[in-house]
C-alpha cells in the first residue's frame, strides 16, 4: 500500500511536470505565433513601402509632364482669381455704399422712431395722468354715491318712521275727522234746532201777539156774547114759549158769533165751563213755553260745548295740514335725491366706460411702444453688425411664448431690412384678411342662429 501511494505520488508529480511542460510549450507557441504575426506585418509594411517607392518612381517619371500642365493651370487660376478679386472689390464697394446708405436711412428711421417713442411716452404719461385723474374722480364719485346711498338709506328710514308716525297721526286724524263729522252733524242738528227754536220763538211771539189780540177780541166777543146770550136767552124763552126750535142757519143769521161759538162750545155748556176751557188752554200754553225754554237751555249748552272744542279742533286741523305739507316736502326731497343719485350713477357709469376706453388705449399704446422699441433694438443690432461689431442676440424659445400677443411680437413686429419689412407686411395682410373672414363668418353664424 505504501508502494502504491508512492507510485501515486510519483505519477502525480509526473503529471504536474507534464502540465507545466505543456503550459510552457503553449507559451512558446504563442510567442512563436506573435513572432510570425510581427514578421508578417513587417513583410506587409515592406511590400507597402515597395509599392510607395514604385509609385514615387512613377511620379518622378511623370513629373516633368505634369509640372508643365500644372504651371499652365495655375496661371489660368491666377487670372480667374484676379478677375474674381476685381469683381469682389466692386461688389464690396457697392455693398459698402449700400450699407452706408442703409445705415443713414436706418439712422434717420431710428431718430424718427426715437422721437415717436418720446412722443408716445409723453402721450402714455399724459394718458396715465388722465387715467389716474379719472380713477380719482371715479373714487370721489363712488364715495359721493356711497354718501348719497347712506343719506338715501337714512332718508328711507326717516321716511319709514315718518310714514309710520304719519300713519298713526292719519289714523288719529281719521278718528278726529270722524269726530269732526259727528260734531258737524251735531252742529248742523243744533243749527237746525236753533233755527227751529228761533222759528218756534217767532211763532210763539206771533202766538202771543195773536193771543193778546185774541184776548182782546175774546173780551169784546165775550161782552158781545153776553149781550147775545141775553138776547139768545130771551129768544130761547120766546121760542120755548112758542114751541119752535131754531136751526143753525137761523142761529147764524140771527148771530154769527153765536154760531161760531156754538161749533166749539158743546150744547148746554155754561159760561163758567167756557172759562175753564180757556184756562186749560192757557195752562197748556204755559207748559209749551216751559218745554221751549228747556230746549233752548239744552241748545245753549251744546253751542257752548261746540264753541269750547272749536280751538282744539282748529289746532288739530292745522297740525294735520302741516303734517300733509311736511310729507309732501319730504316726498319732493326724496324724489330729488333719487334723481341726483340716478344722475350720479349715470355719471359714474360714463366715467367707468371712459376709464376703460382710456385703459385700453393706454394698453394699446404700451404695446405699440414695446413694438417700436423691439424694432429699434433689431435695427440697432443690424447697424452694429454692419459696422463689424459683434452683437449677442436674445433668442426666445417657442416654449416661452404663451400668448397670441407674444407670437405677434416675436414674428410680426421686428424686421432687419426692406425685404423682411415687405414680408412682414404681406404676413400682416394675410392675417388681417383671415381675421376679417373669421369675423364675417361669426357674424353670419350669429345672424343665422337668430
From TrEMBL:
Molecular function in Gene Ontology: structural constituent of nuclear pore
Keywords (A to Z) from UniProt: Coiled coil, Nucleus
Coiled coil feature spans: 197-242, 303-389, 418-445
Residues covered by the NUA/TPR/MLP1-2-like domain: 348-444
Localisation per UniProt entry: Nucleus
Residue stretches making up the Nucleoprotein TPR/MPL1 domain: 63-142
Any one Gene Ontology cellular component term annotated for this protein: nuclear pore
Gene Ontology biological process terms in this record: mRNA export from nucleus; regulation of mitotic spindle assembly
InterPro entries: NUA/TPR/MLP1-2-like_dom, Nucleoprot-TPR/MLP1_dom
Record Pfam families: Nucleoprot-TPR, TPR
Region (Disordered), start-end ranges: 1-33
PANTHER family attached to this UniProt entry: NUCLEOPROTEIN TPR (PTHR18898:SF2), NUCLEOPROTEIN TPR-RELATED (PTHR18898)
Protein name: TPR protein
Species the sequence originates in: Nyctibius grandis (Great potoo)
